[in-house]
Specification:
231 residues, alpha/beta, five-stranded mixed sheet
């Protein structure tokens, strides 16, 4: 398993409507980088440009994602794990949407979210943004919010966070299922699952809350507590 650190810059925050305008990656094993601006075929909002400093002028002659996506797949050939900060909540969704939009096949890559790792293993920190982690580990500042700059910082942060663990060990640790003990949302958020009233669990079940894929772990926990039928 070979780690590849990557980052996207976009026209906005909604993967179903916004577009990737820059894609960058770093392969520390091969010591190679990938960095391409992308013509999104739409205007970049000023508020987005204010964050990443990528203007319409900069991308007007850039290739579109159908070309960039193919080159990115070539860069990520082999058994790789793609690593991004907030991958699960942002970058992966944009990759998936762009590959589908351009009728490209998204490889069956593995993914690793360093934000998820930081929240799980660095709970003592008040914030877990990439820039806050950079400051915590005293890593030199660079041009934040340009993709390759963020990738460079991410690689250094990851090295500090995981110490001498291999990428295989990190991936396994992050993907080990953990027993859910507290209610994650709703009127009983934060309450021990065993203390959530049976009537409320029944109400959630009747209203389809446990039909959502994101609530599968919660459903399993309530079944184990005999608060839900197993079928």
């Amino acid at each position: 398993m070979r780690p590849i650190f990557y980052d996207t810059e976009t026209t906005g925050v909604r993967s179903e409507k916004d577009r990737i305008i820059e894609l960058a990656a770093f392969d520390p094993v091969r010591n190679t980088t990938f960095e391409m601006l992308i013509n999104p075929r739409c205007s970049i909002p000023q508020e987005a440009t204010a964050i990443h400093n990528i203007s319409n002028e900069m991308v007007k002659d850039a290739p579109t994602f159908d070309e960039v996506g193919k080159k990115f797949v070539e860069f990520c050939e082999g058994d790789v794990v793609l690593i991004a900060h907030n991958n699960d909540g942002f970058d992966y969704h944009f990759l998936k949407a762009e590959f589908a939009r351009n009728e490209l096949i998204l490889p069956e890559w593995k993914y690793f979210d360093t934000l998820k790792w930081a929240r799980r293993y660095l709970k003592h920190l008040p914030r877990h943004t990439l820039q806050h982690l950079r400051e915590f580990y005293q890593i030199a500042a660079n041009t934040a919010h340009r993709a390759l700059d963020d990738v460079t910082v991410l690689y250094q942060v990851f090295t500090h966070m995981t110490d001498d663990l291999s990428i295989q060990e990190c991936y396994q640790l992050l993907n080990v299922p953990r027993a859910l003990q507290h209610m994650p949302f709703g009127k009983y958020q934060g309450k021990l699952l065993k203390e959530v009233p049976a009537d409320y669990v029944k109400w959630m079940h009747q209203n389809g809350a446990f039909d959502k894929p994101d609530n599968l772990e919660l459903k399993t926990a309530f079944i184990q507590l005999n608060l839900l039928p197993s079928s």
